[in-house]
Specification:
The chain is α/β, with parallel strands linked by helices and 372 residues long. The chain has helices at residues 13-22, 29-39, 53-62, 134-147, 174-185, 205-214, 228-234, 243-253, 276-285, 311-323, and strands at residues 6-7, 63-64, 69-75, 81-86, 92-99, 104-107, 111-113, 128-131, 161-164, 197-201, 218-222, 262-268, 291-297, 327-330. The chain has a ten-stranded mixed beta sheet, covered by helices on one side. Helix 4 (134-147) packs parallel to helix 5. It is elongated, with a radius of gyration of 21 Å. The chain starts with 5 loop residues before the first strand and ends in a 42-residue tail after the last strand.
């Protein structure tokens, strides 16, 4: 990669328009180039044939289309696919595609690692390296679309939903994440509706207020506990932004649109947060907030102190919530056999002969995992 060249993947539509204006070109060139890159999957500026040869030559002298490197793709027995991607500085991230009967969801990372240190997530063992650029975020989408398509871009597995639920806390990389989500929803790029792009946060309250002002994407909150004492242990950012502050922004987030709901993510930890008293506390604190509750069976990782709640315990917890009028569902665990389930992603470059999780990993500059 030539460090003096602009990476065109770093621009949403507004940024691309400004880029072309600075080149002395018409702003509509932005839409043409966005379509070439994101809809047609073109990396070679030289074959963007609705641009003049002189413009193509000018672009090649100042810009490039630079993507993360795919180290490997791996498929789960249930159809989940995971990509390990190497970034230009040697760091690694992972991206996961989850196919379902009526939709396909792509889980995208926003940081290399995570600084929030949630105790039930493998990220706590890895630490934080840096934020991803717009190009590194949207590049995950670009690569996944190409991987799941034939040469004509007819998808074998359609990406109908994108969730910012991979490695990292999206609201701590606010500007780059918002620009990448703009591309996900742009009709000249991936064209997803605002209801099909979801940002998941552990509760960065100032970022939530700011997001509500600039974006209409769907929202998921990693709640995981019904009281401050327990949430301080599980999600340490709660010490800075306690439940009273977090729930206040949630109460007002979709104000004026009674049809929209916030998804409250709640990982089920045996004997920790899964008892009837916890369910009743959850009912109380969520009163008056438009939510649906997503109960997530805990996905174990090496040396964790936690265990997954039993199916019976999870079902009883759900029944208590539903009897109180809350919409509650249990998330089906997907991709666990390839460490692609919630909380299991590890950004490690492994030998290309990788076959099982028991084989030795060769760490690159940083190893990381999801933070939801």
């Amino acid at each position: 990669m030539n460090r003096t060249l602009k990476n065109l993947l770093d621009f949403d539509r507004e940024g691309m328009q400004l880029f072309f204006q600075e080149l002395g070109e018409k702003p509509y060139r932005a839409e043409q180039v966005l379509k070439w890159i994101h809809q047609m999957g073109i990396k070679d500026i030289g074959i963007m044939t609705n641009l003049s040869k002189s413009l193509r030559d000018k672009l090649k002298s100042v810009a490039e289309i630079d993507l993360p490197e795919v180290v490997f793709e791996q498929d789960s027995e249930d159809g989940t696919r995971k990509w390990l991607l190497r970034l230009r500085d040697g760091n690694g991230i992972e991206t996961v595609f989850i196919p379902e009967k009526n939709r396909g969801t792509l889980c995208v990372s926003s940081q290399v690692g995570c600084a929030l240190n949630c105790s039930f997530c493998s990220t706590a063992r890895q630490g934080f390296s840096r934020n991803l650029t717009v190009a590194e975020i949207i590049g995950q989408v670009w690569l996944a679309v190409r991987s799941l398509s034939d040469e004509s871009l007819r998808h074998d597995h359609t990406i109908s939903n994108i969730v910012m639920m991979g490695m990292g806390e999206p609201l701590l990389n606010f500007d780059n994440v918002v620009k990448a989500m703009n591309l996900m929803m742009d009709d000249f790029a991936y064209g997803l509706s605002k209801r099909r792009v979801t940002l998941s946060t552990s509760g960065v309250v100032p970022g939530l207020w700011r997001l509500s002002e600039v974006s209409e994407v769907a929202l998921a909150v990693s709640l995981h506990a019904p009281n401050d004492e327990l949430r301080d242990r599980l999600v340490p950012i709660n010490k800075k932004y306690p439940l009273s502050e977090l729930l206040e922004v949630c109460r007002n987030y979709f104000k004026g649109d009674s049809r929209r709901r916030i998804t409250m993510e709640y990982v089920m930890l045996e004997g920790i947060n899964d008892q009837p008293e916890h369910a009743n506390q959850l009912i109380k604190i969520l009163e008056g907030i438009p939510v649906k509750v997503n109960l997530i069976p805990f996905n174990p990782f090496p040396n964790t102190i936690y265990r997954r709640s039993s199916f019976a315990i999870i079902e009883n917890f759900k029944r208590i919530l539903m009897r109180a009028g809350l919409n509650a569902i249990t998330r089906k665990t997907r991709g666990e056999d390839i460490d692609a389930a919630c909380g299991q992603l590890v950004g490690r470059v492994q030998d290309r002969s990788y076959r099982s999780r028991e084989q030795k990993a060769i760490p690159i500059l940083f190893e990381s995992s999801t933070a939801i």
